[in-house]
Design goal:
alpha/beta, 2-enoyl-CoA Hydratase, Chain A, domain 1, 3 domains, 6-stranded parallel sheet, 5-stranded mixed barrel, 14 helices, about 20% strand
Length: about 450
């Protein structure tokens, strides 16, 4: 009887422990962040905010869904430092299927407390690339490469020597690895089909957290998604050569409108705003200064055409210069994670802008050919009727007024129709009309 009582008590204690563990685990939360695109300062700000929020809410872990071709090296280093000092373990999950963690994404994955990849994903190709279209000294590039190798090795060391060696090859020789190869090398901890599978496999694993290790309890944890804020989304969207190009063109155009037709503030304000946003994007993306100079020259040519209408060659030269400048503006380096500006977008923008300036120039020429609509000059060519005989001077009714008139072609009798030849002060020089019609008769 006593034996049965002990067995029953032990069973109840075991059940209570299991129930308590399940309840505690069910109360755990995992914050999920998503990075899909180039790494930039906006990405670093977003991850800093998300990881900080997870720490304040006592999350079990932070999972970052990563799909990136690379990005800004300064932002990458900031993120790696952020992971090392995070208040909760950070797990990087290269996702979705077909995604990648290339270039800066490789080092970010190595810096995480845990790393996983979805099937059919790749990691690697982390060789540093110089931007700006300028030639970079070989010694400088070698120093940068060595620094990256050393920095990556510090984080990869906890994954084994094979991971350290592969990280060096990924940086020096742009080597890549599939999810299976990365697992065999120890670069990642596991391969997961989806987020639920990831959380189930990491459950019960030890993960580094600063100088310590913690046991993860992620199976069945509540998933809390932390998306980018609207401002972070806008700043991330700006890191695109097509967006930056359009902002640059629109900004310059609005500034020229403000200078050409001053008096308002809307065009100038919007132009300054567009140029500020374009400058933010160009600060991050590799920029070819020759391309930027050519874009500026193209607008100078357009402006000169406005000031000296009739020289159509300036408009055509402006279109060609704009297209050439835009095509090389973000054209370097090869393999940039930010991509290149769209050729159809550049050509279309150049043609539309050139057509707009040509239309403005044509209107200016038409306005120059029009006769003055106001002032005494507008009387030239007008017809009237003699009121007092012109011999040679007298008066005539022109444009609903009585004018002193002088006949250029002999005496003109009362009632005859005359045409204004010129205006001398308040006196009209006129001649007899040959058709004899009457335009303005007095009542």
């Amino acid at each position: 009887m006593i034996k049965k009582t002990y067995i029953l008590a032990a069973t109840l204690c075991l059940l209570a422990a299991l129930t308590a563990n399940a309840t505690a685990q069910a109360g755990q939360t995992v914050h999920v962040l998503m990075v899909d695109g180039a790494i930039s300062s906006a990405t670093a700000d977003y991850l800093d905010r998300g990881i900080g929020l997870a720490g304040r809410e006592g999350a079990e872990a932070v999972v970052i869904l990563l799909n990136t071709p690379g990005g800004d090296a300064a932002a990458m280093l900031e993120i790696m430092e952020m992971f090392e000092n995070a208040p909760a373990p950070v797990i990087v999950y290269v996702w979705p299927r077909g995604g990648m963690a290339a270039s800066a994404g490789t080092l970010i994955t190595l810096a995480a407390s845990g790393a996983a990849m979805a099937p059919h994903t790749t990691i690697g190709a982390a060789h540093p690339v110089a931007g700006g279209g300028a030639e970079v000294d070989t010694a400088v590039l070698e120093k940068l490469t060595n620094a990256m190798v050393e920095h990556a090795g510090v984080f990869a060391a906890r994954r084994g020597q094979a991971a350290v060696d592969w990280a060096e090859r990924a940086i020096r020789a742009s080597e890549t690895a599939s999810e299976q190869e990365a697992l065999e090398l120890g670069v990642i901890d596991l391969i997961a089909d989806d987020l639920d599978d990831l959380l189930a496999q990491f459950d019960g694993r030890a993960a580094p957290l600063g100088a310590d290790e913690v046991m993860l309890h992620t199976a069945g944890a509540t998933v809390i998604e932390s998306p980018m804020s609207p401002v972070e989304q806008i700043l991330s969207a700006l890191i695109n050569p097509n967006v930056a190009f359009l902002l640059l063109i629109v900004g310059i155009q609005l500034i020229f409108i403000e200078l050409y037709a001053p008096g308002g503030w809307v065009a100038g304000f919007l132009g300054a705003l567009c140029l500020t946003l374009a400058a933010y994007a160009m600060r991050i993306m590799p920029l070819n200064w020759l391309g930027l100079a050519l874009v500026g020259v193209s607008f100078v040519l357009f402006f000169l055409d406005l000031k000296t209408p009739g020289i159509e060659a300036l408009t055509f030269a402006g279109i060609g210069t704009l297209i050439a400048g835009a095509l090389v503006l973000f054209n370097t380096p090869v393999g940039s994670p930010y991509g290149k500006v769209s050729v159809p977008l550049v050509v279309g923008t150049g043609l539309v802008l050139g057509a707009a300036f040509a239309l403005i120039v044509a209107q200016g020429l038409r306005a120059q050919r029009l006769k003055p609509a106001t002032g005494v000059e507008s009387l030239i060519g007008r017809q009237g009727v003699v009121r007092v005989p012109l011999d040679p001077s007298g008066t005539a009714w022109v444009a609903s007024e009585i004018w002193t008139a002088v006949a250029d072609d002999g005496p003109i009798a009362v009632g005859e129709q005359i045409e204004v030849v010129s205006v001398e002060g308040l006196r009209l020089r006129v001649r007899r009309c040959s058709d004899g019609g009457i335009e303005n008769m007095a009542a």
